[in-house]
Design a protein that fits this description.
Number of helices: 13
Helix content: 40-55%
Strand content: 5-15%
Number of strands: 7
Largest sheet: 5 strands, antiparallel
Strand order of the largest sheet: 1-5-4-3-2
Distance between the termini: 47 Å
Order of helices and strands: EHEEEEHHHHEEHHHHHHHH
């Protein structure tokens, strides 16, 4: 067990979206504890992150887990400018005060987040979560530590029809295979990867656009300034919360977020987590 001094830290909000649905087999949230299994070097590694006074206890288990943890600790605690965030907007300032501990973190399972975001393209969250769970159980690696989502080499060997049998449409299935094949040859996302490199490699892949790329930047690589354009609901949430405008598009959202430059992903996360929506 490794103690990391980091206060404040709220595990559920900081690792939100790292568990894909309530019943998914690779990750769970429970009472300030987050557990995640993922494939590393053709083995299952399990990380357990627990909130404790003044920080986190982290337990890494499995073959190669110590090396993965050592690499993660070069990025953790995150350099997310949390202490410098002092918004003038009253609502955002109040959300930041009443919901402390939202940290934007890099994680060793960035590939998994990339796959989960691709599965979320153009479908309901509940459908993507179900498809993620089916794929994990059908194609993923199982060990005494738990269930992992299939790694890039496993996905790369599949054909679209095998993924379509899990309920995934052809377009997302082929995007997932392309992502996995490219990642197996030349990492597309990774713990140590510069954000600019990840963005360039993701956007070069057919079937991958700005929405997918920015979701990965924010949730997997801890970019506190990622701006998620192309989302169905987010512009309406932002425009209503920041300007009391019941309708909004990406251009208006970007305009309203400009005063928060440097923390725009943090702001959208705070607004989304508060359940704000236009009437």
């Amino acid at each position: 067990m490794t103690f990391i001094e980091l206060a404040p830290i709220a595990v559920r909000s900081s690792f939100f979206m790292h568990a894909v649905g309530k019943f998914e087999p690779t990750a769970q949230h429970a009472d300030g504890v987050f557990t995640k299994c993922f494939e590393h070097a053709n083995q299952v590694v399990r990380f357990t992150v627990r909130e404790v006074p003044a920080g986190l206890d982290v337990l890494a288990e499995g073959p190669g887990a110590d090396d993965v943890l050592a690499r993660w600790l070069t990025h953790f605690p995150p350099v997310d400018d949390y202490a410098a965030f002092a918004p003038e907007h009253r609502l955002v300032r109040e959300l930041h005060r009443t919901r402390p501990g939202l940290r934007l973190v890099r994680v060793p399972w960035a590939y998994d987040i990339g796959c989960s975001v691709i599965l979320q393209q153009r479908v309901r969250w509940v459908d993507a979560a179900r498809q993620w769970s089916i794929m994990a159980r059908q194609f993923g690696m199982t060990s005494p530590l738990g269930q992992a989502f299939p790694g890039p080499r496993r996905i790369a060997r599949l054909i679209p029809a095998e993924i379509e049998a899990c309920g995934v449409d052809y377009k997302r299935a082929t995007a997932l295979i392309r992502f996995a094949r490219e990642h197996a040859l030349n990492d597309v996302v990774g713990l140590d990867m510069p954000l600019a490199t990840m963005r360039a490699r993701m956007l070069a892949l057919p079937g991958i656009g700005p929405w997918t790329t920015e979701m990965i930047a924010g949730f997997a690589l801890g970019d506190q300034d990622a701006v998620t354009v192309g989302d169905l609901h987010l512009p309406r949430i932002v425009c209503w919360a920041l300007a009391r405008e019941p309708r909004g598009d990406d251009n208006r959202m970007v305009q309203l977020l400009e005063p928060f430059a440097g923390h725009r992903f943090r702001v959208t996360r705070l607004l989304s987590s508060a359940g704000i929506s236009p009437p």
